[in-house]
Amino acid sequence: MMIRDARPDEYKKIAQLHEEVFPGFFMTSLGMDYLKGHYKAVLKYPDTICLVAENDGDLCGYVIGRANAKNGLKKVIKAYPFHFAILGLKLLFKKPSSLIRVIKNITKKRDDNTVHDDQNYSEIGLIGVLPEMKRTGVGHKLFEAFCEKAVAKGAKRVSLTTDYYDNDLVLTSYRNWGFKEYYVFTAYPERKMYRLIKDFS
Length: 201
Hints:
It is built from eight helices and eight strands. The protein is of the alpha+beta class. The radius of gyration is 16 Å and the shape is globular.
């Protein structure tokens, strides 16, 4: 088992891995063309941190996020506007309601303003392993490798988001990894979620 940096030219493999790791997720429902297009751009973006778990030459898990969370996906879209315009047009013709959801989730609605979020942290966007590799510690190794990369880039905190309801097992894992609840927000359409944070300072 080896944890290593993903290469930009591996976007197709990572899109296929995404499809296997996250069945039933909204992003998966957008189709393989969208996934490949999304990862092609994100893996090229300099602020991206993406690591893969490789077992006997095959990818079996990955973690992807950004060194600096501020403005998130907006920065990637701004860097490659033509690329994302084409992806958006394809969605407009195939799944117009999905395009609306993508746009609305670029900015997330806070449920309250009791916590000031300056977005001064690194952010894990997705972390997952193949079903047969669950409970083997691969996910935690990917998380630790991401944190090492983030800290090396100057991060003092790492954040991620996860579902609020019916998610006790995942929440327990994240808490065991040192995450604490930061605040609650609602993603479109009415998907209540936690933002969790881990402080390294």
